[in-house]
From TrEMBL:
Gene Ontology molecular functions: peptidase activity
HAMAP family linked to this entry: ClpS
Name this polypeptide is given: ATP-dependent Clp protease adapter protein ClpS
Ranges for domain Adaptor protein ClpS core: 53-132
Keywords: Hydrolase, Protease
Lineage: superkingdom: Bacteria
Xref: PANTHER family: ATP-DEPENDENT CLP PROTEASE ADAPTER PROTEIN CLPS, ATP-DEPENDENT CLP PROTEASE ADAPTER PROTEIN CLPS1, CHLOROPLASTIC
Lineage of producing organism: Bacteria, Pseudomonadati, Pseudomonadota, Gammaproteobacteria, Moraxellales
UniProt GO BP: protein catabolic process; proteolysis
Length: 137
């Protein structure tokens, strides 16, 4: 097939759409009113709306240790997780008494970044505070 200026050949379009998984290819289609349709001979393309879903969320979990001061943990919770003093104190006490607590819930890339920032900052200040991420269910 030959493509015209500004147009893509049907074969190229079919390959592109098959790779994306967003279009069903049918011979002799039965499209409803309002569906977009592109025809070329016996072949018709029905454009399907993309199926979107929210990304999975991950919890940034702070783990307890015997060396990191409580004031430092509160400072980190306020600085990196935007918690106010009361919220930060509550999370810090949960870490202290229960061994771990959730500091925040984010998409994976943000959760990894925050955990890495906290771990790096704690090491630079000489504390063994540890944050990790866990898939939130």
């Amino acid at each position: 097939m030959r493509s015209y200026k500004g147009q893509v050949s049907l074969g190229q379009m079919k390959d592109s759409f098959q790779q994306s998984g967003l279009v069903d290819w049918h011979f002799n289609p039965r499209l409803q009113d309002g569906d977009e349709q592109h025809t070329d001979g016996d072949l018709a393309v029905a454009l399907a709306p993309p199926q979107l879903k929210r990304p999975p969320l991950y919890a940034v979990v702070m783990l307890n240790d015997d060396y990191t001061p409580m004031d430092f943990v509160i400072e980190i919770l306020q600085q990196y997780f935007a918690l106010n003093l009361d919220q930060a104190t509550q999370v810090m006490l949960t870490v202290h008494y229960e061994g771990k607590a959730v500091a925040g819930v984010y998409p994976r890339d943000i959760a990894e970044t925050k955990a890495n920032q906290v771990n790096h900052y704690a090491r630079s200040q000489g504390y063994p505070l540890l944050c990790q991420i866990e898939l939130k269910e």
